[in-house]
Amino acid sequence: MKTTKMLLGCALFAVGLGMSQAYAQTTLRMTWYSDGNEGEVMTDLLRRFEEQNKDIKVVLDQVPFKAINENLPVQLAAGQGPDLARVADLGGVARYMLDLRPHLKDPAYFETNFGPFLEWMRLPGDSSSIPGYMTQLTLTGPFVNKTLFEQANVQMPGPKATWEEWATAAKNVAAKVQAPFPIAIDRSGHRFFSLAITQGAKLFDDKGEPAVVDEGFKRGAQLVFDWHKNGVMSKELWGSVAGSAYRGANDEFKNAQVVLYESGSWQIGQFDKTIGDAFDWVAVPTPCGPANCSGMPGGAALVGIKTTQHPKEVARLIEYLASENVAAEFYERSLFVPGHLGLAKKGLEYKSASPQGKAALKVFSEGVSQLSPVANKLQGYVHNRVIFNAVISRLGQAIAGESSLDEAYKRIEADVQQQIAERTKK
Amino acid sequence: MPYIFLLPNLLFFGLFVFVPIAINFVYSITGGPALFPSDRPYVGAGQYTYLFECGSYVDPSTCREDHFWRGVYNTLFFTFFQVATMVGLSLLTAIVLNMKIRGRGFFRAVYFFPVLLSPVVVALIWKWILQRDGLLNAAITGLGSDRILFLAEPGWAMFWAIFVSVWAHMGFYTLILLAGLQAIPSDIYEAAEMDATPRWRVFWRLTLPLLWPNLIVVVVLSLIRAVQTFDEVFVLTGGGPGTSTLMVVQYIYETAFSNQVQNFGLAAAASLVLGIVLFALTLAQLAFTQRKSS
Fold it and tell me: Which pLDDT tens digit goes with each residue over A114-161?
């Protein structure tokens, strides 16, 4: 009886101790979206972080990408945001980001390894804040269904081939193997500009103000417009929806319906996992235009949010996740191009990737050196999404037959001007 | 005393209807990206002026905010054809289901079943049927014809938007009309039969006039719902191709929440304009009903 009472007492004490510890815990909420398996990888890393930091509990709220772009900004504007969030529109939500610098043990580590990308997270005039770190660096580029080329007995264009050469080859293949999409380009501003910049689009005037429609831009728009007319592209992506809605063709590519799919490095993980050995696919360097062979950089960052009640804990968590070993594990297991300069220099071992996945990662990593200064400037421009949205919406209307390209150009200029004015109204 | 009993309902109604309308109005006379009204600069009638700035109101491409006007014209087109088709088919179905036919209970259930489905589910089902590799194209190619991109051609997209909307809601209006038909005393029909009145005359002179109050309700309810239409068309076509099925409510939603620059002021102005149209429709319904009952 005495032993039972003692055991009961000990158990109650242990429960009480546990409860008091739980009570002292700080809970951080992290809003997260995934393109592939990175949510699972992050869950593992957070579990490890919690084991080492018993006073912090992290709740990972996994949401669709659309919610990050559409719902999160409203939440943030209302002051009801999470403590941390993984965001892709870095300039758009920069005003809600927390400057972690006062709470970081080693801010220089962030400057050294994420320096150029931190610029993308800062508001104009700010040259020192550290809101977070890059969970991935992305680069737009094409994926090609190699098996379809082999079945059609058509030679794949070489590494310096132009967009027009790829279009001719892809149409030839599609005709022979009855593929419905010779070329598919995501309905996205990033993807369109990776084409337009190769055609010589400059986007900004001498003062650094947006001047979107120039000769290079028009050449890019004309190509996309003509490809819809002559069957190289199907209206199902660019012409099928209104406004700035995103449409991708990843499912069509996975179903071997697309010959060349212009998307980006974030697709590697899911293609590697889902296509398996159904067919051979390769990533190829961005096709060239008269100006260059540049893709568009982009990426996602995990950032602290200004309204958090726990800035120190947020900084501790970001410091842990951005540390070299942890970040390396995250990039390697998620099959991402690293957004960490030190790791990019050292190189990563993508152990879980298939040979196709590894080859694709190599192509995209090499593409970083081909980036045009215009592409980097556009990615760092705080209102870049305004430009992207105007272009998608108006070009989509022209492709659907609602307006001419000239009318679309005028509307793009007017939309960009009006929306930037609205955004900066005080 | 009666006001005390009305008070709880009035409070509830005021809090969830009048207060949001007032807040909406405040947003419509302010601008900028800030969410809280106190942080938003006053712009007066600027949002309304912007919305109504047009070279010609019959040509949306001459309007400064052409998407709003495209939404207005698409909504008008959709409303006209959807309501006409819906009322016609509902009436026809109600008359048939009121007859003594075999399996009448089963057919009544079949026509009502789509009403129970969520609009998003309805749109997704039809999207799967209508897409490139959908059921309908499988049937078409199976018969040796070329596949049709139903949701990528403007004419087809609007046709299917109307069709799907009618399919989903017809059961509800059929039920209202069926109830009206069953409320007509049978002795009137018996008297007409004894007089050997032709069936078409019975329909025009007896059924239709006696069903008129129910028909008015059906027309006004379907009209209000058609003007408000959003979810089904948004999921089915996304407002495309281009802007050929973009409705006013989708325009408001995208302007406020989906665009990069979340323009709450412009969206609030557009929603107030829509609110005034809906209010006018409701008044028309009240006027019709009162005239009939008096």
Answer: 988 999 999 988 989 999 999 999 999 999 999 999 999 999 999 899
Which of B284, B265, B293, B275 has the alpha carbon at shortest distance from B48?
A: B265
| Range 237-276 of B in CB contact (< 8 A) with A | 237-246, 250, 254, 257-263
DSSP B33: S
A223 touches chain B (CB under 8 A): no
Cis peptide before B241 (omega within 30 of 0): yes
Whether residue A242 and residue B240 make contact (CB cut-off 8 A), yes or no, is: yes
How crowded is the C-beta side of B73, counted as CA atoms within 13 Å?
A: 12
Give residue B10's identity as a one-letter amino acid code: L
**pLDDT tens digits along A238-287:** 988 888 888 899 999 999 999 999 999 999 988 998 998 899 999 999 99
CB-based contact B278:B252 (threshold 8 Å): no
Q: Given an 8 Å threshold on Cβ–Cβ distance, is B154 in contact with A422?
A: no
CA dihedral sign, ordered B269, B271, B275, B281: positive
> What are the CA-CA distances from residue A25 to residues A44, A55, A82, A303, B82 (Å)?
19, 4, 17, 21, 57
CA distance A25 to A291: 56
pLDDT above 60 (res A2)? no
**Rounded to the nearest 10 degrees, what angle do helices B208-227 and B66-98 cross at?**
150
Rounded to the nearest 10°, the torsion over CA B200, B201, B205, B211 is: -20
Residues of B in contact with A123 (CB under 8 A): none
Q: What is the mean pLDDT of chain B?
A: 92
Q: Give how far B86 is from chain A: nearest CA, Å.
A: 26
Could you report the per-residue pLDDT of B180-223, keeping only the tens digit for each? 999 999 899 999 989 889 989 999 999 999 998 899 889 989 99
Structure tokens at A131: 């809101």
Residue numbers in B near A400 (CB within 8 A): 154, 240-244
User: Which chain A residues touch B257 with a CB distance below 8 Å?
Assistant: 70-71, 74
* Distance (Å) from the alpha carbon of A422 to chain B's nearest alpha carbon: 5
On chain A, the residues whose CB falls within 8 A of the CB of B134 are none
> What does the DSSP 8-state code read for residue A162?
B
DSSP codes joined into one string, A216-249? HHHHHHHHHHHHHHTTSS-HHHHTSS-TT--B--
pLDDT of B290 reads 76
The H or E element containing residue B239 is none
Q: How confident is the model at residue B287 (pLDDT cuts 50, 70, 90)?
A: confident
Structural domains of chain B, ranges and CATH numbers in brackets = 81-246 (1.10.3720.10)
pTM of the model: 0.86
Answer whether A423 touches B (CB < 8 Å). yes
Whether pLDDT at A310 is above 60: yes
pLDDT confidence of residue B105: 85
pLDDT of residue A35: 86
Q: How far is A265 from chain B (nearest CA, A)?
A: 23
What separation in angstroms does the CA of A347 have from each of A49, A258, A332, B11? 25, 31, 10, 65
Which domains are assigned to chain A? 26-137+298-355 (3.40.190.10), 139-297+363-423 (3.40.190.10)
| Average pLDDT over every residue of A31-48 | 95
pLDDT of residue B206: 92
Residue B132: exposure state from Cβ atoms within 10 A (0-12, 13-18, ≥19)? middle
Residue of B nearest to A70 (CA): B258
Tell me: the pLDDT tens digits for B127-140?
Answer: 999 999 899 999 99
Q: Is residue A327 pLDDT above 80, yes or no?
A: yes
- CB A386, CB A420: distance < 8 Å: yes
